[in-house]
Amino acid sequence: NPVAIASLKEGEVVLDLGSGAGFDAFLVSPKVGKTGRVIGVDMTDEMLEKARENANKSGYANVEFRKGDIENLPVDDNSVDAIISNCVINLAPDKEKVFKEAYRVLKTGGRLMISDVVLTKPLPEELKNDKELLVGCVSGAILKQDYLELLKEAGFVDITIHKETPGFLQGYDLSITFSAFKG
């Protein structure tokens, strides 16, 4: 998410939801510098192990990885300046809880900068259970207007969609890149 990375400043604390092997966290690390910090949260031991290994190998001293669930973040209240995430929230069963948790950990004025998959119309039942679509981040996706409404209900303001790209399921899915702020 180039929009997210470009907006980061030296000294900020950034949280990466669903950090995987750490790719996005490592891109962010130089932007926040030595006085900043990047926290990656992932729920899989294999990914955490790989991310920590990558961080040690490449000398990312300002990056740490924590085991956790994005619906119950292992992060203190009001401690994060920015949250980034790439194609992860749509996989969470309780998206409302994800956004409430994001709101909880952000400092006042903090921002959410996300790229995710949403739907433009409901998926037919047979597509919802398609394993290939689940892997492709589509079957867990919800309607765009419902997604944006959940953000508002969690307390986020100034929700801006920066980019929309049609997905591979013609007419059903979109990849959106957006930002939102904790008021």
TrEMBL record:
Alphabetically ordered keywords of this record: Methyltransferase, S-adenosyl-L-methionine, Transferase
UniProt xrefs under Gene3D superfamilies: Vaccinia Virus protein VP39
EC number: 2.1.1.137
Gene Ontology biological-process annotations: methylation
UniProt key word Transferase: yes
Reaction catalysed by this enzyme: arsenic triglutathione + 3 [thioredoxin]-dithiol + 3 S-adenosyl-L-methionine = trimethylarsine + 3 [thioredoxin]-disulfide + 3 glutathione + 3 S-adenosyl-L-homocysteine + 3 H(+); arsenic triglutathione + [thioredoxin]-dithiol + S-adenosyl-L-methionine + 2 H2O = methylarsonous acid + [thioredoxin]-disulfide + 3 glutathione + S-adenosyl-L-homocysteine + H(+); arsenic triglutathione + 2 [thioredoxin]-dithiol + 2 S-adenosyl-L-methionine + H2O = dimethylarsinous acid + 2 [thioredoxin]-disulfide + 3 glutathione + 2 S-adenosyl-L-homocysteine + 2 H(+)
Pfam families: Methyltransf_31
Domain Methyltransferase: 9-155
Superkingdom of origin: Bacteria
Recorded GO MF terms: arsenite methyltransferase activity
Top-level EC class as recorded in UniProt: transferase
PANTHER family associated with the record: ARSENITE METHYLTRANSFERASE
Family classification: Belongs to the methyltransferase superfamily. Arsenite methyltransferase family.
Protein name as annotated: Arsenite methyltransferase
Source species of the chain: Candidatus Shapirobacteria bacterium CG06_land_8_20_14_3_00_40_12
